[in-house]
Amino acid sequence: MIHLKTPDEIELIRKSSLLVSQTHALLVEYIKPGVKTSKLDDIAEQFIRDNGATPSFKGYGGFPATLCISVNEQVVHGFPSDREIKEGDILSIDCGVFKNGFHGDSAFTFPIGEVDATAKKLLQVTFNSLYIGIEQAVVGNRIGDIGFAIQNYCEFTHKYGVVRDLVGHGIGKDLHEEPQVPNYGKRGKGPMLQEGLVIAIEPMINMGTYQVRTLSDKWTIIAKDGKPSAHFEHTIAVKRGKADILSDHNLIFEAIKKSEYIQDFR
Ligand code: MG
Ligand code: MG
User: Fold this and answer.
1) Of the ligands numbered here, which is closest to the C-alpha atom of 106?
2) What is the 111 CA–ligand 2 centroid distance (Å)?
3) pLDDT tens-place string over residues 110-142
């Protein structure tokens, strides 16, 4: 069942989503070679709790951390550990917060120092594909229009792999609500997009095969061929004419301007 949101509820989801973006922006100050990914998790959890919210992911289905941190060939659901960030890595950080009864969810992939040209291109294409998908998230379209636009750009134009096994989702009182929002699909198919529908659109794009597998830790999903993968996500509200993006990557790019280690890859 799809839960449509009132304008007041959408404003609460915006608050949660902005707190996620502020968390990402704060992390930019700490992301550098030699830092353990578990340190980033500690900083994020403290910041979220200091802002009167709770991390959506911690304890969700038994997930042990505030952030999903997925490095290089890890697609999603990597968890923070003693692993140190290295120059040349790409680091996907997915974060969700719960505040005032509503979740916000957003992800961003950071290039660490100098990354090679192929990784930079993967970030650019994945980032662009998110916004290409969001352009379709308007009243009168269908869920399949979003997935088709993302798949067409990533797979048919750029020959990357669009992950099939994981998809975007409705979001609100629950972190994952209906409908599912695949990053692939057919134009004109799937549920109709209506005013009040709030969804997380989150292309997970692999440099090689779209196929993935789960590591023995039972969480971390990696690209089957071991090639890099990128992930960008926004929580958005469907509107007439143009979607309302509730999380905010601009806060992250502002922080990146001041970072020695992270480049604006756009
Ligand atoms: Mg997410
Ligand atoms: Mg999500």
Assistant:
1) 1
2) 21
3) 999 999 999 999 999 999 999 999 999 999 999
